[in-house]
Amino acid sequence: MTEVSAGLGTGRASVSAVLDFAWTGGEFTATEVMAGTSMTRSTAIDAIDTLVSAQVLRELPNARAAGSYRSGRPARRFVLAPDLGVVIGVDAGDTHLTVTVADVLDRTLVHHRTALDPTQSGRARRDTILGQMARALEEADAVRDDILAICVGVAAPVDRDGMSPPHPDGFWERTNPGLAAALSDWARVVEIKNDAQLAAIAEGSSGAAVGCRDYVALLASERFGGGVVVDGHVLHGAHGGVGEGVVFDHIIGVGSAVGLRYALQDQVRAAVESGEIAHDTAIGRLADAEQVDPRVVLMAAASGDADALLAAARVGETLARVVGVLGSMYDPARVVVCGAVAESIEPVLAAAREVLPAQLHLPAPEILASTLGAEVVSIGAVTTARRAARERAVPLLAERRLAALA
After folding, report:
1. What is the dihedral of CA 208, 344, 362, 357, to 10 degrees?
2. Contacts of 77 (CB under 8 A, 6+ apart)
3. Cα atoms in the 13 Å half-sphere on the side-chain side of 183
4. How would you class 361 by CB atoms within 10 Å of its CB: exposed for 0-12, middle for 13-18, buried for 19 or more?
5. pLDDT digits (tens, 9 = 90+) for 348-390
6. Quick count: other Cβ atoms within 10 Å of Cβ 219?
7. Rounded to an integer, what distance in angstroms lies between the CA atom of residue 372 and that of residue 378?
8. How many C-beta neighbours within 10 Å does residue 114 have?
9. 311 Cβ partners below 8 Å, 6+ apart?
């Protein structure tokens, strides 16, 4: 239950209960609050009126005034105030930046996805992120005082204070260049999170893991990284490193944390070099390109192209080893392959499913492709920001407004 603290007196629990009810109740009446919270009528009405005074709830025109009520005394109707503020979700990947400004319930106000220069310095990257956030906020016709919560996903482990540990090559420090401190005066609540953990939150709230209590969201396009959920809880670790992909550098048959798009490229080139794929075929000619487009290979595999199916099967073997390690470590019921590559990854997943049972002693987890595409981390960031607004920022806002009225 959300806690609206100190300043609300003896009605704190009832006000918190009504506020919790309001987040999912849409338009509601005091009678519906009573049924949903087991409050007495007088307690429910007092708590509702308190939140109306704080401008957290809004009383709607009664049914008679709206022309939909014919006789008797119409019930008072309430709704969570639509102008409480906004939240911002950010996916700050290595090569892309997505900024979303949304309301606290279900409406997206602004959504932008742009390319990032992976060679940027940490300072330049921080300035780019803050600049894009400021522009998105302005486009949403909002100001900083309107921001209730911010969540930023980064391609690095992140501790509970929003800091990333040092990386041997400085990658994590550049990916998360002091964002917690830089955003500390932007909003009431600021959270910096690992991108795979946010992917897991997205899959659990609106993706392939809805209703599942044990799963891994495997970001797999650029590099492997897992967001791990066990018994319904997202695992974190002392430094936010649960699911970090460097372990795959040391797994025989994987050998690297680089993701599936590069694995497909490597397998196509290796098969052409060995003569298993002729150089003058549609797939063979791709080996001459600076980069092999994984979508071309996967679409050809889905159409039955033998060369593409060969490459997909080899990558499937690699993926099975990755999932086998995750299965042995965390015992998930599902592994959801996430990221832009997920849209066309089914030929690889089909191959992985064939060999996965031999990779572990436990029952093999189900391997699924995410339906959330390249936006999975962004969706998780917005979901997390909304949750932070509900649980922390809005109760604090109500408390301050009521204190000002006292």
Report:
1. 150
2. 27, 28, 29, 59, 60, 62, 63
3. 32
4. exposed
5. 999 999 999 999 999 999 999 999 999 999 999 999 999 999 9
6. 31
7. 10
8. 10
9. 264, 267, 268, 271, 277, 283, 297, 301
Give 289-321 pLDDT, tens digit per residue: 888 999 999 999 999 999 999 999 999 999 999
C-alpha span between 51 and 38 (Å, rounded) = 18
Give which of 71, 59, 56 is closest to 27, Cα–Cα.
59
Q: Which of 381, 387, 386, 343 is nearest to 98 (CA)?
A: 381
pTM: 0.90
Q: How confident is the model at residue 6 (pLDDT cuts 50, 70, 90)?
A: very low
What is the DSSP secondary structure assignment for residue 370, as one 8-state letter?
Answer: -
How many DSSP H helices and E strands does the chain contain?
Answer: 13, 12
In angstroms, what CA-CA distances link 60 with 73, 94, 148, 322?
Answer: 15, 46, 24, 54
Q: Which two tokens stand for residue 253?
A: 């048959």
Residue 257 near residue 246 (C-beta atoms within 8 A): yes
φ, ψ at 337 (rounded to 5°): -80, 120
Nearest to 192 by CA among 170, 165, 217, 219: 165
Tokens 């889905």, located at residue? 302
Give percent of the chain above pLDDT 90: 75
Angle formed at CA 118 by CA 116 and CA 121, multiple of 5 degrees? 100
Query: What pLDDT sits at residue 5?
Result: 41
User: Two tokens at 157?
Assistant: 């482990």
CB neighbour list of residue 250: distance below 8 Å, 6 or more residues apart: none
